Amino acid sequence: MPPYKLASRDFHPDNTIIRVGNVDIGKDVVIIAGPCAIEGVNFVEQAKQLSKMGVNILRGGAYKPRTSPYSFSGLEEEGLEILAEARKQSGLPFVTEITDIRNLDLFCQYVDIIQVGSRNMQNFCLLQELGRISHPVLLKRGYAAKLDEWLLAAEYILAEGNKNVILCERGIRSFETYTRYTFDINAIPAVKTLSHLPIIADPSHGTGRKELVIPVAKAALAAGADGVMVEVHPDPERALSDGGQSLTMNEFKELISFLGRLQCRTIRG
Ligand code: PEP
Ligand code: MN
User: How far apart are CA 160 and CA 156, in angstroms?
Assistant: First the structure.
């Protein structure tokens, strides 16, 4: 047995399937979309449009871990309220990031899927607390984490009893600076071999450049990803965070129409 016993495919040969809203994550191809951060009530309109386009799950940060303390760090509880209103009006569940264990009760009240960001992948106390609830957890890969470290982080959650863990490849730091991070395409089939947990691709953070998002999303799906999570903003140039990697609604339509044409199961075997 590998050290991440509960996360390993040796221990659990069948794919883990997690039902959220209208999708079975781990079986269906899931589309998660929304802005990097919730910036205001305009998000409710965007959510309704995303729902009509065929998105399965909304995304948007209310608590944003930022490299600089002077950057916009989210609307906090007001952001969660806006996400909840968007859920009501669009019919779609949402994923949003937790940055502080002290907000766990609040997240349990509001949130459908709790995201652990790259910077918190090895926040072991946070992982253990998330293991004691039953909400699905989207565990992003630390940007300098090896696959075994990532799967061991998942193990922290699983070992406490929460089996609803979804992995998210979001790029790793390499010597390349043209892109923000290097999307690790290898990680998709490697994790599928090593683990039964679903894996979602985040080509937005994985590249940091909007023109690369759709090609890398396609590559990740061809490599066997269970879905994609993409940053989409109505006006990326004015976005308060990650505008350079955010697609406009029109650009995002291209990815949606590709997914429609693809009949993903065919390419994914
Ligand atoms: C995000 O999803 O907006 C985010 C901050 O992601 P990461 O933790 O991968 O940087
Ligand atoms: Mn972002």
Answer: 7
